[in-house]
């Protein structure tokens, strides 16, 4: 956008923005800054799943298994697509589920926060709330998930590189620019 046309107010969301990407790519932390910058609300799908089940994510995996977790995730994300458009951090596996992906693609603008292995390893180390990383060597697990998931995450509407050492605010600003270029997330400005 040329300097003379810079917006004075944040652009208004006309569709939800769904952040996708691997564990540790910054969906929740950057998503909160993004929502703030857009004066929109933010929701973390994993928090909604925990509230719906009244259990932690590891407890859901342990008591009911991953398939049940994915079914709950599917229902929760479908609900988050309705109502006032907001910024949604989806869990790393959500966009891999064909039905969740279809719902997100239909209703929202999906943004993949693409991070490399070192960034993901650094950002997830020492945390125990992610069942997939609690078994085995996290670096190996994440490397396997990169191979498996990056081709699918690549189907997202917009891709923004999530680089180490960049502030959440700077990352949120880059996402806004990418969304403006894409054009689908924001209502047209009225003169
Ligand atoms: C998962 C990612 C987690 C959470 C669950 C499964 C995944 O969310 O949904 O542990 O399959 O990648 P975050 O990506 O927010 O950590």
CATH class: Alpha Beta
Q: Decide which structural class fits the backbone.
A: alpha/beta
The major pleated sheet works out as:
5 strands, parallel
What is the end-to-end distance?
A: 15 Å
Each distinct ligand: shikimate-3-phosphate
Task: Quickly count the domains.
Answer: 1
Helix/strand order: EHEHHHEHEHHHEH
Q: Roughly how much helix do the residues carry, as a percent range?
A: 40-55%
User: Average pLDDT across residues?
Assistant: 94
Tally of contiguous helical segments: 9
What is the rounded Rg?
17 Å
The shape is: globular
Low-pLDDT parts are: none
- CATH level-3 fold name: Rossmann fold
In spatial order, strands of the major sheet run 2-3-1-4-5
CATH architecture: 3-Layer(aba) Sandwich
CATH superfamily: P-loop containing nucleotide triphosphate hydrolases
List how many beta strands DSSP finds: 5
Percent strand equals 5-15%
